[in-house]
From TrEMBL:
This is D-alanine--D-alanine ligase. Cell wall formation. It catalyses: 2 D-alanine + ATP = D-alanyl-D-alanine + ADP + phosphate + H(+). Belongs to the D-alanine--D-alanine ligase family. It holds the Pfam family Dala_Dala_lig_N. It comes from the Bacteria. Pathway: Cell wall biogenesis; peptidoglycan biosynthesis. HAMAP family: Dala_Dala_lig. It is an enzyme of class 6 (ligase). GO terms for molecular function: D-alanine-D-alanine ligase activity. It comes from Nocardioides marmoribigeumensis. Its EC number is 6.3.2.4. Keywords: ATP-binding, Cell shape, Cell wall biogenesis/degradation, Cytoplasm, Ligase, Nucleotide-binding, Peptidoglycan synthesis. It is found in: Cytoplasm.
Length: 313
């Protein structure tokens, strides 16, 4: 079997630059393991190219809308091309944060209470009255984020009711639906999960301590803006609990191959599910590569295993 891999990177979402950086890094890691790798963007010639010269496997590293909402994976399935990652239906569920929270809550995982508001409802019912009701119901602080999207774009921590209007505007700039969630104080961690054919396994838990206190876009992609600890500074018991939550979320959402789950551990030791990512960033400051480095596999080796498992499906 040919081991020619096509890495899809770029796209038209707000996370295009992150995707390009992820694509380059993974491509280099696979080449170091002996794979023939092509990196290309998504355009109108993609489907014809796949049909004319199909690779052994496609590796979608597209972030944000179209990259993580299952659409590209639907096209790959139409073309009959194997790919690394979760299927279209699972992607749609995971990419929609409120839906994902509902699924994991039904599976018995803790997730912060929230309110989900489309922009039209927010406007038609009177923004001031709606915001007052949200603050009364959920309390402060809150975190406001787009219901769909990644890299913390449009996310704002709200500690005063006076700051809520601008936070809602920021969220609506990235989507038509806002998720307003009770902000849980605690240790922020992330857990990668991978399955190369032997069942899902958790990577080492990564602790996240951003300089500004909030893990926003700048803290995620500016070198030195965030302190990462691998493994996280948690007790053995809490570390195991975080890994367990990530594995249960991965399975409850029907995910495949690779995911990253974002969590908060509060002062009482409760592990709260925040969201899951089906196409985790692979840049120099991204969490999953840090976890891989601390594990017993290398990045190229891990993706090589995932590629071969996907190609054999």
């Amino acid at each position: 079997m040919s081991e020619r891999v096509l890495v899809l990177a770029g796209g038209l979402s707000h996370e295009r630059d992150v995707s390009l950086r992820s694509g380059r890094r993974v491509a280099e890691a696979l080449r170091d393991r002996g794979f023939e790798v092509e990196v290309r963007d998504v355009d109108s010639t993609l489907l014809a190219s796949l049909r004319d010269d199909p690779p052994a496997c496609v590796l979608p590293l597209l972030h944000g809308a179209t990259g993580e909402d299952g659409a590209i994976r639907e096209v790959l399935e139409l073309a009959g091309i194997p790919y690394v990652g979760s299927g279209p239906a699972a992607c749609r569920v995971a990419f929609d944060k409120p839906v994902a929270k509902t699924v994991v809550a039904a599976a018995g995982l803790a997730t912060p209470e929230c309110v989900v508001l489309p922009h039209e409802t927010f406007r038609e019912l009177g923004a001031a009255a709606v915001m007052e009701a949200m603050a009364e119901r959920l309390g402060l602080p809150l975190i406001v984020k787009p219901a769909r999207g990644g890299s913390a774009l449009g996310c704002t921590v709200v500690r005063s009711v006076a700051d809520l209007p601008s936070a809602m505007i920021d969220a609506f700039a990235y989507g038509d639906v806002a998720l307003v969630e009770r902000f849980v104080q605690g240790e922020e961690v992330a857990v990668g999960v991978y399955d190369d054919g032997d069942g899902p396994r958790a990577l080492p838990v990564v602790g996240i301590v951003p300089d500004g206190g909030v893990y926003d876009y700048t803290a995620r992609y500016t070198a030195g803006s965030t302190e990462f600890t691998v493994p996280a500074r948690l007790s053995e018991e809490l570390t195991a609990a975080c890994a367990d939550v990530a594995l249960r979320a991965h399975e409850a959402l029907g995910l495949r191959d690779l995911s990253r789950t974002d969590l908060i551990v509060d002062a009482e030791g409760t592990v709260w599910f925040l969201e899951v990512n089906v196409a985790p960033g692979m840049t120099e400051t991204s969490i999953v590569p840090l976890a891989v480095e601390a594990s017993d596999v290398e990045l190229g080796e891990l993706f090589g295993r995932l590629v071969r498992a996907a190609a054999s499906r």
